[in-house]
Amino acid sequence: MGFSGFALLKEALNGQRGWTEHWRKAAPKPAYDVVIVGGGGHGLATAHYLASRYGITNVAVLEKGWIGGGNAGRNTTIIRSNYLLDGNIPFYELSMKLWEGLEQDINFNAMVSQRSVLNLYHSDGQRDAYARRGNAMALHGVDAEMLDREAVRARVPYLDFDNARFPVKGGLLHRRGGTARHDGVVWGYARAADRRGVDIVENCEVTGFLREGGAVVGVETTRGTIRARTVGMAVAGSSSLLAAKADLRLPMESHVLQAFVSEGIKPLVDGVVTFGAGHFYISQSDKGGLVFGGDLDPFPSYAQRGGLPVFEDVAECALAMMPMLSRLRILRSWGGIMDMSLDGSPIIDHTPVEGLKINSGWCYGGFKATPASGLCFAHLLATGELHSAASAYRLDRFARGALIDEKGVGPTPNLH
Ligand SMILES: Cc1cc2nc3c(=O)[nH]c(=O)nc-3n(C[C@H](O)[C@H](O)[C@H](O)COP(=O)(O)OP(=O)(O)OC[C@H]3O[C@@H](n4cnc5c(N)ncnc54)[C@H](O)[C@@H]3O)c2cc1C
User: Fold this and answer.
1) pLDDT > 70 in the chain, percent
2) Of 48, 162, 186, 370, which is the most exposed, with the fewest CB atoms less than 10 Å away?
């Protein structure tokens, strides 16, 4: 059933009885053209673009849990394209353009809200770094504005301007950045893919790969063996575990990233604001809760929940930026497992194993990448070629030394 003003009106008059399930509870078939492992945002977006742009509909998305149970439904929902490096900017800007048309494309309200992202700076050196980033963005056609201290004060007057340990000197404003409803995005992609005939199979864990002459020709799952012409893996924090089943060792570590939500308050933070003197960012959800996060837990883990030291660090950053937050109660926190690559950038590529393609290494920035990642991975699965916007995201860049180290912190996954 399609969503439209007419459908809303009809259901309002009909007691909301006509709405149907967003996607079928598909049972796995013995064979598909393409099997995608992982029903997060990236796997589902890939299925949608395979069907809608490349006409390939004999596709299954295999998810070991439920749709939206992974990082796709655990993130802090920020979307942006304010990157610095050549390998990244065109990809993330493609993603931003896809976000801008997403709701029409998938006929679903994903609550895409371009409420802006403001990066604060607190020193002259940091100002220069943001000016450089803003210029790089502008050269690629991405919106970027440098704000001085008074312009920042006019925009976000609730920051500590007068007594701060790290005084706010200005900010880099990216107006087209913002937020989208994370689980709405996965539900929307799942529904759109399902409507074109893709099978979305939940509670179906891939436990191994079916190999013939070394090539991957299908997957072993908890719901039986499924053959496929091509297999694409998009399992985020489980990438190393799954790749190991195909005898691959990835340049990646898995770490937990936490998010926090406060009690609901009246509208206060109307965009996304990031602290420049520590790792902390904040936005406000439509329900009124302040949503914020910070650094990864520094040690590798598959726990899906984080530790108190990071919580403490996040709270300290929050109070340094907005002392009034000391009076706020945190209602919820949770963690997700991040696929941290050695240079902090993703991989969308073939693997050395024939028949197996990889989409991984999203670190803690993969939500904003969801549409472009899906499109570029669909392109690879459909054509065997790298998409021009993702041509830097090759697996062999770690061997070639062609790293995309956006943060400039070297081969230390937990620092990216
Ligand atoms: C707290 C937190 C905050 C974040 N904030 C942001 C943000 O503000 N902006 C941003 O851009 N990014 C953010 N991210 C990162 C972003 O959420 C991830 O990079 C992105 O969601 C990863 O892609 P995905 O949606 O496909 O992953 P997932 O949703 O994790 O999908 C992978 C799926 O694979 C499934 N799976 C794993 N192994 C198997 C198997 N063997 N068989 C079958 N299925 C399997 C998992 O169950 C999971 O559902 C954040 C992440 C976290 C945890």
Assistant:
1) 100
2) 162
